[in-house]
Design the sequence.
């Protein structure tokens, strides 16, 4: 998808170039040039009729004549003072005799002979011009598609010698990359090698030619590669895999060749290939994408071809390592694999701090609290949050970002902007409020469940009509069976409230159902958490770094049994949430009404009302009555 968009982005101006070039050529050849030669002819030659011509010949005035098919050109006088005439030729068999008698130098002229020469010269010139223009356009296209700055030398005929891939890494060092300590450590050796390749050569050690950075999108793979170049102070050549596989067959391979030629000239340097899976996909022999295979083959042969001691290091990034062609991963190619995972709590805090340095902010912002609330987000998300926070501060006319700005921007990045002017009917608003409080109450009434920190019924641009935020007090790495089940129960809480209070079911629960089902299925088929099936893997996860889709690896019959078991778990969860809400119906009403009034309430407000209603109606917390 992204590739297509990119394509269009630079194709539009290209078309304009072409049109301009073609219009120019036509204009010159059909309009300008003939006009010029006509003007030239007109300024010197006088037209006379045939009779006048004959009279002038007989008077002995004519010195030279050129007899053509249609016209006769003749000249009176010699050299600089010569005056030229032209007349239309008549059928006149005796013309040659007459001219001879009068001593006129004459010659039979093949009508367009001098024009032929001129014409072919002209054609050649035009063709040359055309090729130059096309060449320019093509190089520009190449340069552009490779993300370079497009500076192109004259007369380059489609092949560029300019440094179109070179990118500045000014100021990017390992300090710019927060967290990712293991990845940095693995890359330190490469930096050292680039500093002094000879040190390695002297001992006879060879470094891997390439390293593969593997991890989910936005975790800083590109940033790490840049930091390696920045640390080693070497040029950084960057290109995305998808840029190799577009436009014309054969161009991809040519680009690879060109890239490596430039890299070799600039060694030591870093060559970074983003999204290498687009060219490095397994060659299965079915898809028959010639262009891609040619490109991959060229890449493989270039990697084999260069001497690793020259100091060219190739870094590549992918989030689909399982789809790569094994040939790419062979020793001598990308044999070093560096995982770049989503940041943990400490990593997130560090990333927030690195990016917060760039904006003015309150000195006492609690970045750890923000990091806790953003489990599962990537470095790119976190960078985005800081920026959103700063934008909020600007929007509100303040000169620095506050904790509140940052908290709001977390929601903006995770759930979208608030849509304050969406009109929702009072009845629907009420259902949404009870739905959200249903989640919150069920969560609060269970042990092994993260505390509720915020409930809101302000609709979001992501389409959410409201949400309940739960934040763990510490980073969690494991999920127990009880916690997994309680999570499902919490997901069913919204629908349970709808049913209990309004005796209805709404589409608002669709996302809850999806998530709850996903967890229930994973519990059974991946985590061995059901008594019925026990300790057995029945699902395979593909695309680990892109959401992780699971596909069952069992017989149809077992699949059917799994479906039944999933349904059973969900039913049990629904029963439990119904029970919790029935037991706490006063709290459900009280909190929902409060939420309807305020639209957004904090975890503390929520707990305060809950405690108050529990004081009046004690003993409904179901401590220890888990199954
Ligand atoms: P990837 O190549 O893994 O998809 P990028 O390197 O392009 O991700 O990261 C996108 C942006 O996210 C970076 O420009 C940077 O601002 C931010 N970012 C990601 N990870 C980190 C990190 N570990 N430290 C600091 N910034 C990060
Ligand atoms: Zn819900």
Sequence:
């Amino acid at each position: 998808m992204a590739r297509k968009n990119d394509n269009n982005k630079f194709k539009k101006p290209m078309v304009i170039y072409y049109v301009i070039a073609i219009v120019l050529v036509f204009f010159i050849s059909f309009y300008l040039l003939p006009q010029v030669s006509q003007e030239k002819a007109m300024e010197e030659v006088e037209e006379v009729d045939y009779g006048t011509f004959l009279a002038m010949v007989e008077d002995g005035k004519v010195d030279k004549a050129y007899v053509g098919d249609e016209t006769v050109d003749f000249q009176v006088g010699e050299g600089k003072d010569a005056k030229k005439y032209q007349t239309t030729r008549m059928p006149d068999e005796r013309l040659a005799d007459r001219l001879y008698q009068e001593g006129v130098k004459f010659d039979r002229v093949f009508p367009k002979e001098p024009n032929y020469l001129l014409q072919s010269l002209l054609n050649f010139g035009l063709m040359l011009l055309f090729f130059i223009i096309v060449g320019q356009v093509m190089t520009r296209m190449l340069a552009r598609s490779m993300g370079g700055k497009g500076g192109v030398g004259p007369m380059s005929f489609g092949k560029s010698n300019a440094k179109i891939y070179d990118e500045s890494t000014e100021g990017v060092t390992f300090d710019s990359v927060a967290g990712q300590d293991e990845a940095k450590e693995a890359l330190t050796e490469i930096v050292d090698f680039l500093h002094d390749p000879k040190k390695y050569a002297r001992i006879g050690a060879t470094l891997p030619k390439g390293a593969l950075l593997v991890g989910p999108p936005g975790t800083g793979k590109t940033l790490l590669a840049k930091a390696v170049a920045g640390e080693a102070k070497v040029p950084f050549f960057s290109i995305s895999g998808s840029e190799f596989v577009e436009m014309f067959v054969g161009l991809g391979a040519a680009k690879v060749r060109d890239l490596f030629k430039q890299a070799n000239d600039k060694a030591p340097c870093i060559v970074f290939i983003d999204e290498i899976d687009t060219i490095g996909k397994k060659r299965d022999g079915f898809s028959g994408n010639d262009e891609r295979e040619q490109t991959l083959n060229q890449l493989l042969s270039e990697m084999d071809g260069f001497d690793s001691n020259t100091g060219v290091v190739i870094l590549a990034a992918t989030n689909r390592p399982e789809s790569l062609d094994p040939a790419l991963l062979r020793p001598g190619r990308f044999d070093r694999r560096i995982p770049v995972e989503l940041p943990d709590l400490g990593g997130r805090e560090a990333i927030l701090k690195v990016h917060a340095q760039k904006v003015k902010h309150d000195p006492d912002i609690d970045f750890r609290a923000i990091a806790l609330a953003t489990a599962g987000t990537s470095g790119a998300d976190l960078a985005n949050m800081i920026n959103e926070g700063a934008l909020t501060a600007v929007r509100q006319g303040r000169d620095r970002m506050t904790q509140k700005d940052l908290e709001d921007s977390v929601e903006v990045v995770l759930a979208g902007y608030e849509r304050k002017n969406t009109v929702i009917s009072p009845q629907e608003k009420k259902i949404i409020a009870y739905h959200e409080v249903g989640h919150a109450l069920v969560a609060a009434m269970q042990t092994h469940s993260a505390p509720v920190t915020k409930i809101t019924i302000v609709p979001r641009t992501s389409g959410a009509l409201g949400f309940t935020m739960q934040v763990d007090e510490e980073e969690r790495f494991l999920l127990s069976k009880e916690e997994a089940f309680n999570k499902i129960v919490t997901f069913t809480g919204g629908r349970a409230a709808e049913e209990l209070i309004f005796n209805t079911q709404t589409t608002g629960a669709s996302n809850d159902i999806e998530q709850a089902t996903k967890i229930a299925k994973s519990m059974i088929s991946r985590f061995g958490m059901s008594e019925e099936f026990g300790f057995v893997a029945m699902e395979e996860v593909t695309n680990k770094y892109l959401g992780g889709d699971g596909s069952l690896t069992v017989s149809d019959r077992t699949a059917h049994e799994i479906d039944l078991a999933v349904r059973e778990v969900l039913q049990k969860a629904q029963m439990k949430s119904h029970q919790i809400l029935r037991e706490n119906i006063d709290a459900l009403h009280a909190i929902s009404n409060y939420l309807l009034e305020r639209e957004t309430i904090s975890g503390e407000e929520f707990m305060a009302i809950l405690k108050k209603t529990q004081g009046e109606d004690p003993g409904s917390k179901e401590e220890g009555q888990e199954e």
Remarks:
- The CA atoms of residues 525 and 538 lie 5 Å apart.
- The radius of gyration is 39 Å.
- The first helix runs from residue 2 to 44.
- The mean pLDDT is 82.
